[in-house]
């Protein structure tokens, strides 16, 4: 009976693929988030809505404008919460533990403080995984919505491949011009970066093997499981390289690396959430220390709400132009709902920042859910292929935390390790976790219920995007290597050369977007 039911579902899905429209889903029309397009005299009318049924009477053009406006506002929210996420992660990484050792000469106890987190593992798990959480959440939500379908949802994989391109090209383009004119920031541990780069490239080669070589257009349970397990191999290999384990590491010496993940001069500043860019101001040192004083913690939490409601800062009051001040206050008014909502995140001084870290990821996941709904509606109203929206607008917006985190790391750290590691490792996380986990959920369900694998509806377009991405990424890595050989660093340097590199990387991104969009849309 299950096999018969699966064959009927497969036949129905195959027949739907032949319809001359971009996206169809026969669900109960008129409910929030459900995508339904009825056809009247050849013209598709999207009957779904986000908040209220009256949206369907507004007209497609106006609805598209409103949904894109909502999408942009969500992306601003992602930028704001990333600032708190980064601050919480700094506190997590600074955590130490007391280690007692016996001095062999004096036979006395020696107490020292040891870092709990290895910096390489922190870059891969806390930084890269955390900043990739919007994409991972979106892909997982997309998988759960399509649970029981024989075909995988298109938003998850498309967004993650598009996000990989955004991480590699625009984020590198921003980070390379962040250092001050003439300042050079280089990768201190090239061997660790080489390991991370290998697993990043292999992730997309592996994805292509699944889609086009091993089991074309199909994902099996074992393929999904192997994809997830490779994230563990990345962690082990990177840690082995950092510790220089014999036989598992590249025999390449490590350059000078600061003891602290965040330099002392940067740690003496407190981050203020501001979407215009990171701003810092001096605060008492006691505010930065781990505190068990309940009143002190409550005072810090109260200060977050006070800051969220302030429409004019001390810097704004110094501006002479009343028009500029008015525009800044208007902008802060638009941000006030996000700032007030994110003030609920506990101060980073509680539990070494873990509560703030988890709450930040929770908010990121919630915004990603709203972004998924808005993207569905945009595809429904406009008829644009969901894949095109996924690896363009959606990938750009959900990758914004990656951009903010890498930019802050490039500004605050003395080396380029974390800024570039976040880019490289985020791409690995996107495949091994962001695609692996949703596919594992869907393939496991289909295997248990129907004894059927998971089918990929637009595998040809996705595979083509992988080829384009791989080709353009070679150009990106080549220019970073060239800068290391000629200037001595990957980031910074003379401004003309930095901006030239930035423009070149942005051009690679445009090439990826244009070719991928044309292929998915059936033009090439």
From TrEMBL:
Task: Give the stretches traversing the membrane.
Answer: 65-87, 116-138, 190-209, 221-240, 351-370, 377-397, 429-448, 460-482, 497-518
Report if keyword Membrane is assigned: yes
- The answer to whether the entry has keyword Transmembrane is yes
List the protein's name.
Answer: Sodium/calcium exchanger membrane region domain-containing protein
Q: How does it sit in the membrane?
A: Multi-pass membrane protein
Q: What is the lineage of its organism?
A: Eukaryota, Viridiplantae, Streptophyta, Embryophyta, Tracheophyta
Question: Locate the Sodium/calcium exchanger membrane region domain: which residues?
Answer: 67-239, 353-516
Q: Which Pfam families match?
A: Na_Ca_ex
Q: Where in the cell is it found?
A: Endomembrane system
- Keywords associated with the record: Ion transport, Membrane, Transmembrane, Transmembrane helix, Transport
Q: Name one GO cellular component term.
A: membrane
InterPro entries the UniProt entry points to? CaCA, NaCa_Exmemb, NCX_ion-bd_dom_sf
Task: Give a GO biological-process term.
Answer: metal ion transport
